Amino acid sequence: MPDLSDKYPEAYKIADDFLTGFRERLRVDFPLSERNSIALHVINAHGDRVSQAAPIDSLDDQLVNIINDILRKNGIVRNNDNLDDYGRLLTHVKYFARRLRKDRQEQEVQISASSLASIGNDFPEAEQIVNKIAGRIDYELGVKIPKLERLYLVIHIARLLDRKKQK
Predict the structure, then answer these.
(1) Could you tell me the pTM of the whole model?
(2) How far, in Å, CA of 33 to CA of 117, rounded?
(3) For residue 49, is pLDDT > 60?
(4) Best-predicted range by mean pLDDT (8-12, 85-89, 145-149)
(5) Domains recognised in the chain with CATH numbers
């Protein structure tokens, strides 16, 4: 689990309070590693609201903000009906940003053209949104989204679109 305490001090404070409450009230001690897990749940549950006080300068903040903006423009907003799916998307984006920070020249995983075309045919609206996201990220950040990452984004966004249609 990544330690994001520098970036999300409020979420880690909540996690600390949670662990203290369990220790004091229930006499249950959790390992310190649970702090990261709890904090990540808080971050996922509250999204960008937890980090509003922090300046937007990290790659993952920039990626998340671009994606949130494009999703919002396409009528997809985080709500009680899609919390889990939206959280999964944001978690994926944060790990993608982490991989990019490690190696901006990330090696492209080979995916067959027919696989990509099939996903695009199955989820055309999601693919269109991912194309907008990829274009804006390339333009604003100079980052090309690898094919595999685009595929994952299509799947995540297709879930969100499906939730929106079910509502």
Answers:
(1) 0.62
(2) 42
(3) no
(4) 85-89
(5) 1-54 (no CATH), 56-166 (1.10.1790.10)
